[in-house]
Design goal:
The chain is α+β, with helices and mostly antiparallel strands. It has two domains: 4-208, Bira Bifunctional Protein, Domain 2 (BirA Bifunctional Protein, domain 2, 2-Layer Sandwich), CATH 3.30.930; 215-256, SH3 type barrels, CATH 2.30.30.100. The protein has helices at 4-8, 29-38, 88-105, 165-169, 175-194, 198-207; strands at residues 20-26, 46-52, 71-77, 109-112, 116-119, 122-134, 137-147, 215-220, 223-232, 238-242, 245-249, 253-256. The strands form two sheets. Strands 1-2-3-7-6-5-4 form a seven-stranded mixed β-sheet, sandwiched between helices. The radius of gyration is 18 Å and the shape is globular. Bound molecules: biotin. Biotin binds next to helix 2, strand 3, strand 6 and strand 7.
Length: 258
Amino acid sequence: MISKATILRGLKTNVVGKKLFVFEEIDSTNACAKTLAETGTPEGTVVVADFQTAGRGRLGRRWISEPGANLLFSLVLRPTLKKESAGILTFFSAVFIARALENVTHRDIECKWPNDILLNGRKCCGILLENSFVQGKVDFSVIGIGINVNQVSFQDDLSDRATSLFKELGHEFNRAKVFQELLRGADTLLPSLEKGETRAIMDDWDSRCRMFGKPVTILHGEERISGTALRLNAEGGLVIDTPTGESTFYAGDVTIAQ
Ligand code: BTN
């Protein structure tokens, strides 16, 4: 269990983690952060837990994580953004996480559309954004982040796609130090989000993404679409060149054809 005192020691952030809730066990840090956000918790509030009994993943999936091995946390933001610009939050999150993981692993960190983080081609982190809108603007955003830090083994069906920092680097990581790096990373990038420096954030994300110009397959509900990944549109949708013309996707699972 990481203690609150250890996380706060030397953290020195301006906004992120100023309000911090630490749990040994919780249903979902996102569920908790959402309740806090609905009752007015300030921007930068963070909820972290050692174990989740009902961890939420993307597309209604579950997020299962070994107790005490990883980082499971949610960050509440209240950015000044119109609803149609909320897509930038995905890329903002991926970029601050990638930078922080690069600082602790000294390895290249890849971003995979829409919101996975890869190390050596395997997923080491998933992001789940839950946004709330009022009158066409973002009221709050809960950024849920699950990072596989020291987990050694994964379910059979995940073992070729999922990994942890431990598995890739061959040694354990101090979770409190990794967590501090992430909180500092979010705190440092936050002003760029507020100043509307969307292009800089997207350029960083683009430079970490390997799918553009490559043949990809996207699974979107029951649909499976193949084509060439062209670009992201202004809302963060993935534009694919298919045999029947260009199609844009806002959700789904994408794989690069080998
Ligand atoms: C994905 O499906 O890749 C996104 C997974 C996000 C998991 C994290 S763990 C902390 C936070 N709380 C949750 O219930 N989910 C997110």
